[in-house]
Amino acid sequence: MERIGVLFVCLGNICRSPLAEGAFRHLVDSKNLTEKFLIDSAATSSWHLGSPPDSRGQQAAWNRGFDIGHQRARKLSVQDFHDFHYILAMDHTNLSHLNSMNPGAGAKVDLILSFSDSGLIEVPDPYYGDVEDFEQVLDLVSSAAEGLLKEIERDHFDT
Ligand code: 4NP
Predict the structure, then answer these.
(1) Known catalytic residue: 125?
(2) pLDDT (tens digit, 9 = 90+) per residue, 39-68?
(3) DSSP 13
(4) How much of the chain exceeds pLDDT 90, in percent?
(5) Largest CA distance in the chain
(6) Does ligand 1 have an atom closer than 6 angstroms to the CB of 47?
């Protein structure tokens, strides 16, 4: 069966989307669904290309028992709309960027927090914050990861 592609997108691909990628992968791994997914993250800007996730985010992930240190920032491309089934933006600015690039290939493009009932619509940018702000990002994207996986299981898997 074709893998389900899930791509998380933010401005720099060093703070929010690496945590979303890591949280979703951690969840998928814990349910032994690793082989069913292609999971990645990307930036709308070119500012930090090739950089690892912010060390505060790496610490927040470690605190929850998973490692995101292998990730490297990359730029979003039009090909991503063909390669991924779900492309999830952290905020409205990222979503507008996605909508302006979308070739109409069929990827579902949305805000990540549409899959969470946190009450927030956007994942706050923690770049100028401290490790607690990264922990809050992790709470939000982890809750959304659960909702997203439930939708994917309902729509794509027989379970
Ligand atoms: P991200 O956070 O989009 O969640 O990776 C940011 C990273 C870098 C910058 C802003 C936000 N920056 O201004 O360089």
Answers:
(1) yes
(2) 999 999 999 999 999 999 999 999 999 999
(3) S
(4) 96
(5) 43
(6) yes
First to last CA, the chain: 14
Who contacts 61 (Cβ-Cβ below 8 Å, separation ≥6)?
19, 22, 23, 53, 67, 68, 138
Beta carbons of 17 and 42 less than 8 angstroms apart: yes
The tokens describing 17, both together, are 């989307």
CA 14 / ligand 1 centre spacing (Å) = 6
At 117, give phi and psi (nearest 5°). -105, 35
Q: State which ligand 1 atom lies nearest to the alpha carbon of 10.
A: 3
Q: What 3-state DSSP class applies to 23?
A: helix
| Dist. CA 1 → ligand 1 center (Å) | 35
